[in-house]
Write a structure and sequence with these properties.
Number of helices: 10
Pfam families: TatC (PF00902)
Family: Belongs to the TatC family.
InterPro entries: TatC (IPR002033)
Transmembrane segments: 14-32, 82-103, 115-137, 164-185, 197-215, 221-243
Membrane topology: Multi-pass membrane protein
Oligomer: single chain
Structural class: mainly alpha
Strand order of the largest sheet: 1-2
Number of strands: 4
Length: 302
Amino acid sequence: MPLAEHLRELRNRLLKAVVAIIVVTVVALIYYKQIAEFLTGPVMDSVGCKKGEPVASGGDPKPCAQITANGLLAPFTIMLKVSLMTGVVISSPVWLYQLWAFLAPGLHNHEKKYALGFVAAGVPLFLAGAWLAYAVLPTTAGALVGLTPEDWTNLFPADEFFDIVTRMVIVFGLAFELPLLLVLLNFGGVITGRRMLGWWRGMVVGITVFAAIATPTGDPLTMSLLAAPIVVLYFGATGICLFNDRRRRRGNPDAGLSDDEASDLDLTPAPVGDVEQVSPTPRPNDPDDPGPTRRNGYDDIT
């Protein structure tokens, strides 16, 4: 396809992905309050100040928090933010498929199979990361609110709270795609399982640093809850790549060689077959040429 056709195809795929996100976002706008309660419910159950109940238990202060909307336009802005986040997460199967459909025409048949597997495995991994972010929010909030001094009151601005939720959901979801990307690179012959295994120290450190930067709260608990599953998935991906490399070597002994590495050649001499007699090569009619000179059954041209 020429460049213009590729750009037109990209535009169509992006349009379909955006339409899917918009449709889900519109539906989420209708159920915005229920979604907001679903997102804030576990956190408020963990650290929320109960109405009509004292904030102290047994004479000891019990830190708690309340969610507030600051400003006249804050509820409207928060409604759009929550609905858009819901649209991106729920429509992930659609835009992941559109990504695969854009790449599929340029792939071989076996590569299309791998790309389709990327969509099939990528959606559950993304949703698993999003669910993990949702699950650790109450624990993270409890650990952070527990640091509040006795005479202080915690107020969670709603827009800031949903920014944290959105960032954690997207970051956790995308982080869970890293092992899948490594497996695809291995199936495509870019990296080997042995090389990935040699990277494990650097990868553990890199994943930890990434988790520390990516988590908006910055507390060690949330960082560990993000880093630990990714490390486990990384070693799981390494095992899959090692198994795939072994399977590939059984079918092709030179599969593990790099592009600039020569393969082993079989230099064992082989017997030459019997001489085969051939007819003389025809020549154009030339009165000065008496014909080809025969040597052991061959003409001089042969």
